[in-house]
Each structure stands twice: as C-alpha cells, then as structure tokens.
Amino acid sequence: MFLAPSPATLARAGATLSVDLRAIVANWRYLKQQAGTAEAAAVVKADAYGLGAAAVARELRHAGCNTFFVAHLDEGLSLRHAVGEARIFVLHGTNPGTEADFAAAHLIPVLSGMSQVEGWLKFVESQGRSHPSALQVDTGMTRLGLSRREFDRIRTNQNWMRALDPQLLMSHFACADTPRHPLNHQQLETFSKFAKDMPGVPASLSATSGIFIGPRAHFDLVRPGIGLYGGNPTPGHDNPMAHVVTLSAKVIQIQSIDAPQTVGYGATYDVPKPSRLATVALGYADGFLRSITANPAAPPVYATVNDTWKARLVGRISMDLTTFDIGEVPEGRIQPGDTIDVIGKYASIDTLADAGATISYELLTRLGPRLPRLYKNGTAS
Ligand SMILES: *Cc1c(COP(=O)(O)O)cnc(C)c1O
User: Fold this and answer.
1) 268 and 138 in one domain?
2) Which of 5, 283, 335, 343 is the most exposed place for a label (fewest CB within 10 A)?
3) What is the structure's pLDDT at 2?
4) Which helix (H) or strand (E) segment is 168 a member of?
5) Count of domains in the chain?
6) Of all atoms in ligand 1, which is nearest to the CA of residue 227?
7) Distance 71 CA to ligand 1 centre (A)
8) Is it the case that residue 63 has pLDDT exceeding 80?
9) Considering the chain, what is the average pLDDT of its residues?
10) Pick from 205, 229, 253: which residue ends a domain?
C-alpha cells in the first residue's frame, strides 16, 4: 500500500512530484480506445516509471484494467498486494529457483529463453499440475525471446504445451516510435506467423507507440507504459496524451543582480542584464538530469511560476540546486518558500528529455526517492 505524504513531509521537502491519477486513467482509456477490441493492459515496471506502482495500479484497476506488467519478481510481489486478483505478468521471467514464488503469488512469468522454459517445466512436474506462463518470441529486437526453432520445439510438444499453459504469446517492437521504419513491417509479419502457429493463445506485440501503428499491430492485448504517464508516443507530432506529472521545487533564495555576473559551476551563463534569479532545492541527485544543462547551445528550458510566468533555467544543474532567471515575474509575486514548476506547463517530460539528450522514460525513472509523490484526483481509495 502507499501512504500519502503528510503536510509535515511536504513542508520539509525541497521538491514534490505531483501525479495526476485522473490523467493516467484518461490516458489508459484513450489508448484502450485506440486499440479497438484488443485488451489494454498497463505496464507498471520500475515503480510505474518512478511514479509509484501501488497508487497507479490501484487507480487503473479501479478504472477496469485487469492485466499488469512488471519487470521483476519483487515488483510483482509488491503489486499483488495493491491489485488483488488482477493478472500480473513478470517480463523478466524466472530466475532459477524462484518458480515457486511465482506460483504462490499467482504471478505469470514471461518465459523468454529455453533455460526459463525448462525450469518452468521442471517446476510444473514437481508440482504435478500445470502452471500458467507466457512465452516471448524474438521477432527482431534481439534482446529477449525464443528463436523460431525453440518456439517450434515447444509448440509441437503437446505435453509441454499442457504443462506451460501459455496465457500470452508476446514479442516487442524495436522501432515503434518511428512508424515508417522497415523493421516494424518485418516484425509484424514475423509475429503474425508465430501467432498463427499457436492458435488459441492470445497474442501481444505493441507497447504504447505500437498502438499508433494501427489495427494490424494490436493483436489481442496491448501493453502501454509511457503513454499512461504522459510521454508522447508519436514523436514529431502533437502529444495526444494528457499531462500527468508536475515537479515543483521550492525557492530557497532570490537574488537581484545588477552588475555583470555568471551563474553556477563552470560560470557557463552570463546574466545579460539587471535581473532576478531564484535558486531552488532540486538537482541531479533528485534525478533532475545535469545533462539538461550540458549543452549551452541547446534551446532554453523554462519553468513555470504561478501557472503564468516563464522562468529560464540558467547555469548548470548542480547536485541539489538549480537556478532560474525570474526577471519576467513581477516583483513581489514570488518569495522564498514558494514553488516553481520545473516539469509543468512550459516544460514537458519530453521537452526536458530532449534537452538532456535522453528520452522521457529515463527522465521519469531517474526521479529520486527524495521527492515525495503527491497523488491528485484519485478515486480508488
Ligand atoms: C517497457 C515495456 C513495455 C511498455 O513500453 P512503453 O513504450 O513504455 O509503452 C511493453 N512491453 C515490454 C516488453 C516492455 O519492456
């Protein structure tokens, strides 16, 4: 279970991460609708991309989501408490010797290699009854998955098929965020053949971006992650997803600058005119990536003050501090103790990730434990 941070915790924190649960549900419903008749699961690995798997999954479960994916067994064990009877698939499958832990918590391992398959078969034999699993095949990602030969060995062995009791046949796109990439078509064709050769087992190929490739990519179940959390699944196009995350950092000090000055480590930024600067209690130790300020030639990044004014990020992000030019904020409208939205109206997770030469996935999953998670608009409890 999760506990809401107390007012005292929020008062002590340097920065707070607000998570709009209603927006997550809206995103899930939108993706489900895009996926037509396919079931829409939810990927909540890595603590729901850093936002808090228990809170996110409970809310989605309440909204009607019945299938969840995590990466690790331990993530599945914690999630089991949060979502009751829902189906939970564990993407990494079994580590040798952990099979009984899966069965005890009704977690379904995604078996990706012959050693995992053989381990599961041995476990099933020792139990004297079948246990549900999922099978992952490799269609071109070349990361995890059974080869065509291994798949054929499994599907033609009736005893194995009975013992493995496959609930899902899955694979993963390598280039779904580039819809015209030729590998997408190739993977679709390859996966369709796999699915045809294992009739009666539901098939799943698409994560968030794959859903936008179109109906041929939907199969029986889709596995969105980043889209639920507001990341843009259609790079280069407007983001169809609702904004989920706001990162608000507290101002520690405001300085008026009236002589030429530089800001921060390396003196990389010259304050161009008399101005006011605000330094906030947030830095790369919180996951606010220093690489966002590594390239002085990159386009400026803006935080939001009072939902209204832009404040430009100036100088380098340090471990625990970041400085903003608040020259555009009218005098008296911001004081120490007030907050600036660092992820918000003027800086989406995709904008910041671009600035930091990374992707929204990494930006979110790096947001650290020092930031209390504040859940808004929840209905599950
Ligand atoms: C992480 C992951 C997903 C979710 O991907 P998004 O791009 O975040 O939607 C789906 N399937 C697999 C196998 C994954 O590893």
Assistant:
1) no
2) 335
3) 59
4) strand 166-170
5) 2
6) 9
7) 10
8) yes
9) 96
10) 229
